[in-house]
Write a structure and sequence with these properties.
75 residues; 60% helix
Amino acid sequence: MSKEKSPVPTTVFPPTQHVIFGSIIWAMLALLYYLFLGLPIDNSDGTFVRPYWYRIGIYIFQTLPIATTGFFVLA
C-alpha cells in the first residue's frame, strides 16, 4: 500500500514574513507621503491649508491598514 499524502491546508492568510515586509514598506511610503507632500499652501484668506488630494491620500494610508487588520481578525 502506498501512503497517501496529507492534504496541504489552504489559507487566505499570506505568510507572516510577507505581512511584516508589507507593513514596513507601507509605513515608509506613508511617512514619505506625509513629509514630502504634506506642506500646507497659502489660502486666499492668508491661512495655511493642505490640498484636498492630500487629505484623500492620508485617508487611504490610514484606512487600508485598519481594514486589512479587521479582515485578518475576522477571517
